[in-house]
Amino acid sequence: MTIRHHVSDALLMAYSAGQLPEAFNLVLATHLSLCDDCRARLGAYDALGGAMLDTCQAQLAGDSLEACMARIAGQPPASAPAARPPRGLFPQPLQDYVGGDLAAVKWRPLGMGVRQAILPTGRSATARLLFIPAGQAVPDHGHRGTELTLVLQGAFSDATDRFGPGDLEIANEELEHTPVAEPGQDCICLAATDAPLRFTGMIPRLLQPLFRI
Amino acid sequence: MTETGDDWTALLLAVRDRQDRAAFAALFRHFAPRIKGFLMKSGASDALAEECAQDVMATLWQKAHLFDPARASVATWVFTIARNRRIDALRRAKRPEPEDLPWGPEPEPDQQAVLEMAEDTARLGAALARLPPPQRDLIEKAYFGDLTHTEIATQTGLPLGTIKSRIRLALDRLRLQMS
Ligand SMILES: [Zn+2]
Ligand SMILES: [Zn+2]
């Protein structure tokens, strides 16, 4: 997999610092599972976090070490890591949210053959899987906040570029686009938004509250 | 013993390989006050921060077998545990982790790589101390939790390049061993 579109520095830093909404964390964890480049960059931001931690200092309670040793004595021994299910289309963090691989997704139709499945995350941002039939367009829309779209299968294009497996598109207020799935293979994406999209067409606008898009 | 990064690594490996209590106590004396300070700067009360600091150090003992000194310094690794504990304690958004690399840490880490990782981390700390105050302030705010993701602008001029390439090398080496 040749990934051309990666996580931005600002998003990586926010993920390292633990400042992202859950839905964004999920998209990043999924991209990072596929991309050693971003994994190495995240490691650098974690090192920055380590350097920040090193500058902190607070007075411990008098019996702190003894209390900690008592905690250690009371904790169960580290369990062997659970056997990993065979790698399917979805990396592990996404499988944890879906409850399995592609076959376990509970799709809901959105019209024109497009389907979505909303994943259970905190409400400050929404995560969804999108299924766009080969050759099909997603209705033209703009963004009120940030939209992250990670391609898992197939590819889509919009005015900015082409996005293939593993690629992440980061859209914000400035971008209005009509993503179109490439012919040949149906496109499956993991998308997260922290504000409702702005649809330009009438019909999608009417349906919007229904689909939480 | 001087307090440099590679010494912390040696101490953590002693905890990992021999459940060495003296080594753990030395790590505790260094890191626990820092973890507690980190949590208090992030908004935790003294009592909550104390409890979390003990908890983070207990996790360090329990998960020592997962530590890979070729990919992270001890301070970096402690930070990631402390950050996750803070997310739980202060009820911030859940944070799924990337997939584990299935092969885990190398049993016999490359000593040269470990040393270089520790040196790079020390250099990063020194460079951070020399940053102009406004930039440093921004990074503090980001890591102590006072900035939302939309307020975190792209950071330029941070000396992260060499650490990134070093981690990338370690990942490549692991992948190579597997294939
Ligand atoms: Zn990437
Ligand atoms: Zn969009």
Automatic annotation (TrEMBL), chain A:
Domain ChrR-like cupin: 101-193
Pfam family, one: Cupin_7
Name recorded for this polypeptide: ChrR family anti-sigma-E factor
Species of the source: Gemmobacter fulvus
Record lineage: Bacteria, Pseudomonadati, Pseudomonadota, Alphaproteobacteria, Rhodobacterales
UniProt-listed InterPro entries: Anti-sigma_ChrR, Anti_sigma_zinc_sf, ChrR-like_cupin_dom, RmlC-like_jellyroll, RmlC_Cupin_sf
UniProtKB/TrEMBL annotation, chain B:
Family listed: Belongs to the sigma-70 factor family. ECF subfamily.
UniProt keyword list: Sigma factor, Transcription, Transcription regulation
Pfam family of the protein (one): Sigma70_r2
Domain RNA polymerase sigma factor 70 region 4 type as annotated: residue spans: 123-174
KW Nucleus (keyword) present: no
PANTHER family named among the record's database cross-references: RNA POLYMERASE ECF-TYPE SIGMA FACTO (PTHR43133), RNA POLYMERASE SIGMA FACTOR SIGZ (PTHR43133:SF62)
One Gene Ontology term of the molecular function aspect: DNA binding
Biological processes, Gene Ontology terms: DNA-templated transcription initiation
Classification via SUPFAM superfamilies: Sigma2 domain of RNA polymerase sigma factors, Sigma3 and sigma4 domains of RNA polymerase sigma factors
Residues of the RNA polymerase sigma-70 region domain: 27-95
Name of the protein: Sigma-70 family RNA polymerase sigma factor
InterPro entries in the cross-refs: RNA_pol_sigma-70-like, RNA_pol_sigma-70_dom, RNA_pol_sigma70_r2, RNA_pol_sigma70_r4_t2, RNA_pol_sigma_r2, RNA_pol_sigma_r3/r4-like, WH-like_DNA-bd_sf
